[in-house]
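Sample 1 of the test manifest.
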Amino acid sequence: MRRGLIAAGLWLCSVMWHAPLAHASDAELLQLKAVYLGRFASYVQWPQQERTVFDIAVIGAHPLGEQLAGFYADKRIQGKPVRVRAAANVQDIGTPDVLFVALPTVAARQAAIAHAQDHGILTISDSKGFAELGGIIQITFVEQNVQIKINYDAAVKTGLHIGAPLLSIATVLRGSQP
Amino acid sequence: MAAQLFDQLSIRTKLVLLLGLSLGLGLCVSSGVALYSTFAAERQSSLRALHQIAAITSENMRAALAFHDAQSAANILAPLHTNPHIRYACVEDEQGHLLGQYRAPATTEAEAAAWRKALQQAGAARPDGLHQGIEYDHHYVVYPIDFDGKRIGALAMRADNEAMYAKMRQFVVLQGGASVLILGSLLLLSWRLQLIFTRPILELIDGMRRIGRSKDYATVLATHHTDEFGELYRGFNAMLREIRVRDEKLSQLATTDTLTGLANRGHALETLQAMLTRAQRQGRPMGVILLDVDHFKQVNDTYGHPVGDRVLRDIAHILQANVRAYDLAARFGGEEFLVLCDGADLPATADMAERIRSAVASHVCRLADGQTLHTSVSLGIHAGTDIRATAMQLIEAADQALYRAKQAGRNRVEHA
């Protein structure tokens, strides 16, 4: 029994070492999401660039807000210092550059998406079906891989241009696709 | 051994051989330089091509690496199969974790593992930049991938050198073929060029052989050369002239009596034999006059040998003045003289003998002290058309007639 536990522990360590995403802890996943959110920004062009601060808003109850604030405290996105803030409801969203949607219901997510489309905000979420709902970027961690799904029409409708390298590694929803 | 073998070759072969060796050496050196420069260029070209592929692939790979998208990484690497020489490629994140790899069909897993390790070590040597190199059987590139100024991983590629070696083999075949053609053409040209040098020498050798066979030292070898070959011809012609002059001197010494300037005994006998043979063949007569100075011993004893010599020279002059151009006057020995009359019968021979006798008898030799000396000669003659007579028989017959002239009181002509 004890030998079996040791073997299982060794296997777990091995897998963790060789495939960091496969069985990453929640903290690690959170860290990765924070990193990726900044990297998404590198492939997106916003129509207006007069801001001096890169504004990220997190709507909904999600620990990513704290993670983002900590991670980007001394870093820059697109050459600008990063400001992270939390929004409790759609009215509090304002006009950030990026909106991470962590709302629990489809209706709430749709409302946030609608607001974002109206204000040229890049929407990102790890919620299932987010892209199909009209969100721009959906990230999902499956097994050993991160899966990125991009709703290209939604990005166009929002007035954002997404770079080809990001599109090339993502599942892109276009045209008649839901 | 080689030097002896080389010495045995003709000048023509030596020239062609040396020209061929020089040309071959020049071609080898130029081919070697061309081969090396092509090899260096192909090395750089192979490395540059792999570098370009790595640069393009890494640009596409950046997003996949940024989001740790292994599937996309594999998809981006998959088209590398279109280049059969790329045997392995891998992309790793900043921690060295493998994100994706490409393995050519011919590459085994063990090879891939070993090559990845080697590429990691190569990349570790230059952690902050591009690293590339070429070995005997492969070349590689470790291409760093940055995101927003920060290193997020690296792409490594390894390709074999078969394409380069195939080009080099093709180049060697082409260069070798061209070299053989050039060498063949230049050898043909050198065969023509060597004639410039060998023809004058061979012509000179041919002339030397011809002169050696004919003994015709009056020959002059003509040449239009004004260079060293002309000098050689001129030297050879000068040597021929010297031989000719020396031969004439030797011939004169061998046939002439030094005191009187007349033909000597040996030459007289040779001429007699030739004249007799010709006369017998043609059925013509010939005459022989043998004459002896009367009381010559007494002249020597009375006046001394110099006066005796003077008398002999005077008689020689008289003989020369009284013989025909085709006759021969010779000093036969001591105070004896021989005259060979070609085509003369007995009356003609007798007339000539009488003229000689009369001229000698009327000749006055004036000595240095003012004294005068009178001499006379006795002559025995033989003439006829005896086809069986030998030269010595003619001489003996004339000698017997001379003896009778002496016995009959000297200063007279007797015939056999």
